[in-house]
Amino acid sequence: MYTLLASLFAFVLVLLLPAGAAAQTGNAPAGKALWESPATMCRNCHGTSGEGGFGPDLAGRHLTVAQFRRAVRQPWGIMPAFVESQVSEQEIANLVAYFDSLPPGAQPGPWRFTVPDGAPRGQQLALAAYGCAQCHGPTLDILRQNMGAVAADFEWVKRMVYDHTRLIAAHWKTVGEEPPARARMGNYAPSRLPESVLQDIWMFARDLGYRPFIAGRLGAGVTGTNGVTYTLTIENHGLPNRGLTAEELTINLVVPAGASVVGTTGSGYQGVRADAGLKANVAVWQVAKMAPKEEQTYSITLSRAGTAADNVRGVIRWTKPAVKTGPVDEAVIAPAPLTSATQ
C-alpha cells in the first residue's frame, strides 16, 4: 500500500512540474560551451566565467535548476526574459551544472563598459542603470544600424524591446538577412524598463545619428593557378525609400604579411597602402555610394592564403551620413573562413 501511494505521489508531482523539469540532468561541459559561444551574450553582464560584473555572480552559487529557470524566464530584476527558443530547459540545466562546477568568485569582475565623464542621460541609463549598452556598446552601434535600415521611430523601438523574441526574426527577413538561429536578447518588461526611460535611451541613439546598414561578407579562399582568390560581397540592407544611403565609401581588405596582390575585380580599386587602424597593409577600393538593397561584389587574388593568425579581413568606412561618434563611420568585415586548403 505504501509503495502504491508513493508511486502515485511521484506521478502527480511529475504532472505538476514544468515541462522538462522532472528529470533534468545538467551537463557541465555543454553548459560551458553554450556560455562561451556567440549564441549567448550573458557573460557581457555576468562576467566571463560567471564571476559577476554589471549583473550578479553565478559561479559557485549552487542555485537549483528551478531557481535558475525562474531567473531566466521571469527575471525579478532589470534583465530581459528569455524564452525556450533562446535557452531550452536542458540548456538551463547544463548552465546550472557548469556554474556548480566553478568556485565562487573572490569579487565581481569589472563592467564591460563604464560610463564616460559627461555622459548624457540616455547613455547613463543605457550603460549603468539598465545595461543595454553592456551588450550594444557605449554608442549603441548595432542598434543605430538597425534603426537606420528602417527609419525607426519610437514605436518601432518599443516593439523591438518589449516583444523582441517574436519580432526579431521578422526584422532580419525584412532587411534581407537570414535570422540568427536564436535571438540573443530577451523581452524587457515595461514595468522594469519604463517607456519614459526607453525614450531617453532612444533619443540618445537618435541624436548620435542613425547608421546605414552596410555589411561585408568574405568567402573562403579558392586556390587557383595564379594564387588564392577571395570574394567579398558588400550590401546595404536598408529598406528602399526608407533606409539610409552610405556615401564616400572605402573598402579595405588586409593583405597578409608576405603575400602580394596578383589581381582584383570590382571598380574603384586604388592599390595597396598601410592602414593605421588595421595595423596592416590593405587593398583599397573607393565607392561613391551604396543605396538600400544595393549589392556589389569584389575579389582579390593573393600570392598565398591567409592563416588563422594573419587572415584576410577588413573594414568598410564611409563619411556620409555624418554621425557624432567620429568623422567616419565603419562596418567590420570578419575574417575569411579557413578551409583545409587555406589553413
Care to describe what's here?
The structure is a single chain. The protein is of the alpha+beta class and 343 residues long. The protein has three domains: 23-100, Cytochrome Bc1 Complex, Chain D, domain 2 (Orthogonal Bundle), CATH 1.10.760; 121-208; 214-333, Alpha-macroglobulin, receptor-binding domain (Immunoglobulin-like, Sandwich), CATH 2.60.40.690. The protein contains eleven helices and ten strands. Strands 1, 2, 3, 5 and 8 form a five-stranded antiparallel beta sheet that branches. Helix 2 (28-36) packs across helix 5 (89-100), helix 4 (65-73) crosses helix 5 (89-100) and helix 6 (121-129) packs across helix 11 (195-208).
Summarize the structure.
With 343 residues, the protein is an alpha+beta fold. It has helices at residues 2-16, 28-36, 43-46, 65-73, 89-100, 121-129, 132-136, 141-150, 154-162, 164-174, 195-208; strands at 214-218, 222-223, 228-236, 246-254, 261-265, 269-275, 280-290, 295-302, 314-320, 329-333.
Q: How are the SSEs placed, and which strands pair?
A:
Blueprint: H1 2-16, H2 28-36, H3 43-46, H4 65-73, H5 89-100, H6 121-129, H7 132-136, H8 141-150, H9 154-162, H10 164-174, H11 195-208, E1 214-218, E2 222-223, E3 228-236, E4 246-254, E5 261-265, E6 269-275, E7 280-290, E8 295-302, E9 314-320, E10 329-333
Antiparallel strand pairs: 1-3, 2-3, 3-8, 4-7, 4-9, 5-8, 6-7, 9-10
Give descriptors for this structure:
alpha+beta; Cytochrome Bc1 Complex, Chain D, domain 2; Immunoglobulin-like; 3 domains; five-stranded antiparallel beta sheet; 20% strand; disordered N terminus
